[in-house]
Design goal:
Helices cover 59% and strands 0% of the residues. The protein has 7 helices and no strands.
Amino acid sequence: MLFGKKNETTRVSDADAAAAARATAVDASRPQRKGHPTPKRREAEAANRRPLVGGTAGKSPEDKARVRAERAKIREGMTRGEEKYLLARDRGPERRYLRDAVDVRWNTGEVLLPAMILVLAISLVPMDWARNYAFLAAYGLMIFGILDAWLLVRRTKKRFTAEFGHEPGRGSAWYVVLRSFQMRGSRVPRAAVDRGSELHRR
């Protein structure tokens, strides 16, 4: 009887162990839990941001010099408008055409920054009439700049459609307006056409 009970106990233990093994077995056909919470969108976007060239923390002086040279090369390429160095928003013949449409003309928006600096200087003059005229001129210039940008967008859209056979893509109007309000020397990529030249596809 003693041996019989012992054998029965052994069989029960073996059955329990087999059942536990089946319960903990991984089913490859079912998706497994990640074991950690899903990151928030802001955290995921921050993790995906990568510099064009790696950082210099923990690098040797030679590596740091090489990284600086590579960054300078990228900046120069972007300034010159080399396609492989440009951001995605600036690439392609269509974006190049939109930039040229701004660069071939004088834009009221590009003189707004110097004008505002001048208005700020005049506002320090202790004469009410000078300040009043300066502010009136500044507001008038801003209104004229907005009107000029609107006309530029309409004209560029018409010429773009005639050149490419379709209307410019989404965001093109804002792209043109922002460039028209930048001073010519600070535009990136730099202007590749002269003012007053004929606008054509490059």
